[in-house]
Each structure stands twice: as C-alpha cells, then as structure tokens.
C-alpha cells in the first residue's frame, strides 16, 4: 500500500486570506493542496479559476491538486497548467474523448487524474486507467463541502485499488476521523478533507489524526 497523503481542500478555508490558509496547512504537514474548481454548470456552485490558482502558487511548497468539476475541461487544462497546477483531475461524466484530455494534460508536463461521482461505476475507467497518475473517487455528490460520506463508495475504492496497483487513489467528500480509517482500509491513500481540517483548532492535530487513524 502506498503511503497515506493528506490533501486539505481550501473550499472550507477563509477565502479572504487564502494564501495564509494554504501556508498554515502546509506547515501542519499537508502533502498536497486540493483546489476545487466549479463552473456553475457541471455542479450547482461557482468557485475559482486560473488567475486565483496562479496567485496561490507561490504560497504552496507542496503540489497543487486541482480538481476540475467543470463541463468542458479540455478547454481549460492549459490555463490551469500555466497557473501552476501539478496534477489536474477532471470528472469523467459526460466526457466523450477522455484519452485526448489525458494526453493533453501530460503533453503540457502535468500529472493527470480522473474523478468519478459516487454513482459512476468503475467500469467507466477500465480502458483508461493505465494512462492516469491518479483516480479520485467522490464520496459525496460534488458541489459543496460539509456533506455526509456515502458508504457505498467503499466497495468501489477496493475495486479501483485492484485496477491501480500502487498509484494514488484519492477519496474526496465527508472525510473525518470516523470515515478516514474506513477509506484507508478499503484501499485509498490520498485523503481530501475540507471541513474536518479547517474547522479544527489545530490543523496539525487534524492532519495527523487523518493520516494515522487507519493504522490503529
Ligand atoms: C466537493 C469537493 C470537495 C470538498 C470536500 O465537491 O470536491 O473537495 O471540498 O469537502 P468536505 O471535506 O467538507 O466534505
Ligand atoms: Zn474536490
């Protein structure tokens, strides 16, 4: 099993001081910074775009893990790579030519991942999985932070782990001290957490709890 990594989602941070909030979780041991990009079309919410990512790049000494929840990712990947994304993950739903997007991201010198909504079967990525650096399994329906973890995803985590070998398998949504050990046990090794970390008084304690809770 690859080592457990924690990717705090800035969606739950104080947007009026984003740079500072990123430095704080990096200092507390974050392995990546998860940036949720929403377009008000693929999901019923709008967040941030490439200029904000570019402004945040200098505040992070760890990789920027950019999660695109947008309808037309192919048209925007170049802007996000230029903004400083280290890994770009796009949602597989509604994408006609996913290999083209994966190739484009890699040709731009960036790592590439695919994301699946809770209701999307892992069969949908069977014929692309060899071309990805990471798979992201949504454990809530995307659009908002602070939602309840959907336990059906645990079986999918186990199935996707067997497809991925030791590459990264990220889980996103409703991760806290109760659900973290479940997803790690099922086979996940990258945990996204927004509310759990940013609502905690000590980011250090929150990140360490998520990282080590599966070891017990
Ligand atoms: C939801 C986003 C998540 C969100 C997770 O659409 O993709 O990254 O920030 O938030 P929590 O950890 O609060 O469930
Ligand atoms: Zn996300």
Helix percent reads 25-40%
- Report the principal-axis shape: globular
Q: Kindly report the name of the CATH homologous superfamily.
A: Aldolase class I
Structural class: alpha/beta
List keywords for this structure.
8 helices, binds zinc ion, alpha/beta, TIM Barrel, binds D-xylitol-5-phosphate, single chain, 216 residues
Q: Which SSEs are present, and which pair or pack?
A:
Layout: E1 5-8, H1 18-27, E2 33-38, H2 50-57, E3 64-69, H3 77-83, E4 87-91, H4 98-107, E5 111-116, E6 134-138, H5 153-164, E7 168-172, H6 180-186, E8 190-193, H7 195-198, H8 203-212
Parallel strand pairs: 1-8, 2-3, 3-4, 4-5, 5-6, 6-7, 7-8
The structure holds D-xylitol-5-phosphate (DX5) and zinc ion (ZN).
Summarize the structure.
The chain is α/β, with parallel strands linked by helices and 216 residues long. It contains eight helices and eight strands, in the order βαβαβαβαββαβαβαα.
Could you walk me through the main structural features you see in this protein, from its secondary elements to its overall organization?
The structure is a single chain. This protein is 31% helix and 19% strand. It is an alpha/beta fold and 216 residues long. The protein has a single domain (5-215), classed as Aldolase class I (TIM Barrel, Alpha-Beta Barrel), CATH 3.20.20. An 8-stranded parallel β-sheet has the order 1-8-7-6-5-4-3-2. Strand 6, helix 5 and strand 7 (168-172) form a beta-alpha-beta unit. Helix 2 runs parallel beside helix 3. The longest helix has 12 residues, at 153-164. It is globular. The model has no long low-confidence stretch (mean pLDDT 97). D-xylitol-5-phosphate binds next to strand 2, strand 8 and helix 7. D-xylitol-5-phosphate (DX5) binds at residues 9, 11-12, 34, 36, 67, 140, 142-143, 145-147, 172-175, 192-196.
